[in-house]
Design brief:
By secondary structure, the chain is of the alpha+beta class. Helix content is about 35%, strand content about 20%.
C-alpha cells in the first residue's frame, strides 16, 4: 500500500548528529577520491542517484526504493491507470492458450472469438516456443496495446487473424459468489479495491444475507490492495468497537482502527481460506477475524506483507518509497515477516518479532506470530500427480470439451459425466499417445470425471459454473465446510 506524503516529512532530526556528520564526511572523501582517481569518469547522477542512494535503501528492506524522474513519472501514471483488457477468459498451458469464455460487449466478443478457440501466436510470436512464465508475460504485455492474434478454430483448416484493441474492462474483486450447499455461501475475493466492501455485502445478500448458515470467504491468491476496503470487510463480521489492526513505526504515531460503533455485523459462522499468496490487506482481514475468534482460518501460511509504504516527492521530480511503519493484528502480531538477509542487520523491531512468536486470541487460544497469518487448520491444496500434470499440460480437457460442445445447445445445469463419456475420453487420449495403465486410470477416475465436467461447464455454461464444479473437489473448501458444520468446542 503506497501513500504519497509531502517531502517536508523527511526533515526529521537525526538521532546522533555528530556520528552522522562523521559518516557524511567519510562518504564525501570517498566520492572525492573516486571522482579524481577512477580510470573512467564518474557521472554524479550515476554515482549518487544510481549507486549511493539505492545502496543506502538496500540496508533497510526490499520495499524501500528510490525513483529517478522517469521512474517517478511512471509511478504516478500507474496510480491513475485503469484496468484494460480484451474481455476473454483463457486457459494457459505451456505453449498453449485456449479461450474458455468471452465476456459480452468486450473487444474479444466483438471480434468473433469463441470458446474453444486456440491462440497460436500473438504479434507474430509463436506461443508454442514459450515457457509458462514467458507466455504469461506476453499475455500481460499484449493487453496494453493493439494485438494481432493468430487463432486456430476447431474444424477450420485456416488460421483466423484477429486484431484486438484493449479497452477498459470492469473486473470486480468479488469474482465468485455461489452456494456450496443449501444455506452455506462461498465468496472468492481476488483483491481489495475501492468497491470491494460493497461488492462483498451485495454478494452476501444475494446468497441469503443474515439467513445464511455459514460462509466460506476465499482469500487465496489475494495480493491485497486498499486498507479501507480491508477494514470495511473485517467490520462486517466483528462487534462494534473491536480492534481491526494497529499501526506502529519509529516516526509514525501509533494508532488503532476499530469497528464503527454503528456497525451491524453478520452473525453466521465464517471460514476464511488463505495460502502463501495471500498478502497485505487480505492478511489484515484474516488476522482480525482470527484474533477475535470470529472465523476458522484454513489453508497454508500467508505471505507476510504488513508494511506501511509512504511515497515522498523529492527535488527534481524524483521520489522515495520508504517503509515508515508496520501493521499489527489485534493481538499484537506483526503481519510483516522478518527479512532474513545477510546484508540487512536485524532492527530492534525485527528482534522483537523473533522473541514474541505466540499470542492469544480473545478466547485465549495461542496463535503464532513471526509474520504472516498461520492458519488454525493447515490444509494443503489438491495434489498434482505425474499423471495429472501430464493431462493438464497436454490441454486434453479443454480440447475434448471444445469438440464435445461446439455447435450444440448448452448442456443442462444438472449434466453429469457418464461412464460412456469417460470411455470416449480415454480413446481420445490414446489417439494422442496418452495411455495410462489400468491402475492409474482407476485411481484417477473420479478426478478425471470432475475435471471433464468442469471444462464442459466452462465452455458451455461459463467459467463461473465451472468454478462451482471445481469447488466441490477442493480439499481446503471441503475442510472449511466440515468446520462450519461441526459444533463449536471450547478452545477451538
Amino acid at each position: 500500500m503506497l501513500f504519497f506524503l509531502p517531502a517536508l516529512l523527511l526533515a526529521a532530526p537525526p538521532a546522533e548528529p555528530e556520528d552522522l556528520a562523521q559518516r557524511l564526511k567519510e562518504f564525501t572523501a570517498v566520492y572525492s577520491a573516486v571522482e579524481r582517481q577512477a580510470a573512467d569518469p564518474v557521472a554524479p547522477d550515476k554515482a549518487i542517484l544510481g549507486g549511493a542512494i539505492p545502496g543506502l535503501l538496500r540496508c533497510l528492506d526490499p520495499h524501500s526504493v528510490f525513483f529517478d524522474a522517469d521512474q517517478f513519472d511512471q509511478l504516478k501514471e500507474l496510480e491513475k491507470s485503469t484496468r484494460k483488457g480484451f474481455g476473454s477468459v483463457v486457459s494457459v498451458l505451456p505453449g498453449r492458450v485456449i479461450v474458455l469464455q468471452v465476456l459480452a460487449g468486450t473487444p474479444a466478443s466483438k471480434s468473433g472469438i469463441a470458446p474453444g478457440d486456440e491462440i497460436i501466436a500473438i504479434n507474430g510470436i509463436q506461443l508454442a516456443r514459450l515457457d509458462l512464465d514467458q507466455l504469461i508475460g506476453l499475455l500481460t504485455q499484449s493487453r496494453q496495446q493493439p494485438a494481432r492474434l493468430d487463432v486456430r478454430r476447431p474444424g477450420n483448416a485456416r488460421l483466423l487473424v484477429i486484431t484486438l484493441t484493449p479497452a477498459e474492462v470492469q473486473s470486480p474483486s468479488v469474482d465468485r459468489a455461489f452456494l456450496l450447499r443449501p444455506g452455506v455461501g462461498y465468496l472468492r475475493v481476488t483483491s481489495f479495491d475501492a468497491e470491494t466492501g460493497s461488492q462483498i455485502r451485495q454478494a452476501i445478500e444475494k446468497l441469503g444475507g443474515s439467513r445464511l448458515a455459514g460462509l466460506v470467504l476465499d482469500l487465496r491468491n489475494n495480493p491485497g490492495g486498499l486498507l479501507p476496503a480491508a477494514l470495511d470487510t473485517a467490520a462486517m463480521f466483528l462487534k462494534p468497537g473491536q480492534t481491526l489492526l494497529s499501526v506502529r513505526g519509529r516516526a509514525v504515531q501509533s494508532a488503532a482502527e476499530r469497528v464503527p460503533k454503528t456497525a451491524a455485523p453478520y452473525q453466521f459462522p465464517l471460514a476464511v481460506l488463505v495460502n502463501e499468496k495471500t498478502a497485505s490487506a487480505a492478511e489484515i482481514v484474516a488476522g482480525a477475524l482470527q484474533d477475535h475468534d470470529r472465523a476458522a482460518i484454513l489453508g497454508e501460511p500467508s505471505y507476510g506483507k504488513g508494511l506501511v509504504e509512504s511515497v515522498f516527492p523529492l527535488s527534481e521530480n524524483t521520489g522515495l518509497a520508504l517503509t515508515t511503519a508496520y501493521y499489527y493484528t489485534p493481538s499484537g502480531r506483526s503481519i510483516q515477516r522478518p527479512l532474513h538477509d545477510s546484508r540487512i542487520r536485524q532492527s530492534s523491531i525485527s528482534e522483537r518479532w523473533e522473541q514474541q512468536r505466540e499470542f492469544r486470541t480473545d478466547a485465549g487460544r495461542l496463535v503464532r506470530g513471526g509474520g504472516g497469518i498461520q492458519p488454525d487448520y493447515e490444509v494443503p491444496p489438491e495434489p498434482l500427480t505425474r499423471f495429472r500434470i501430464a493431462l493438464e499440460t497436454s490441454g486434453a480437457f479443454p480440447s475434448f470439451a471444445t469438440d464435445l460442445t461446439r455447435g450444440r445447445d448448452p448442456i443442462p445445469s444438472d449434466y453429469e459425466v457418464t461412464p460412456a463419456l469417460l470411455d470416449q475420453f480415454q480413446v481420445y487420449l490414446s489417439e494422442r499417445n496418452i495411455r495410462p495403465g489400468v491402475a492409474e486410470w482407476t485411481a484417477e477416475r473420479s478426478w478425471i470425471s470432475t475435471r471433464l465436467k468442469q471444462e464442459i461447464f466452462n465452455q458451455s455454461l461459463g467459467v463461473e459454473r465451472g468454478d462451482e464444479v471445481e469447488a466441490q473437489r477442493d480439499p481446503v473448501i471441503a475442510a472449511a465446510l466440515e468446520k462450519l458444520s461441526a459444533p463449536a468446542k471450547s478452545g477451538d
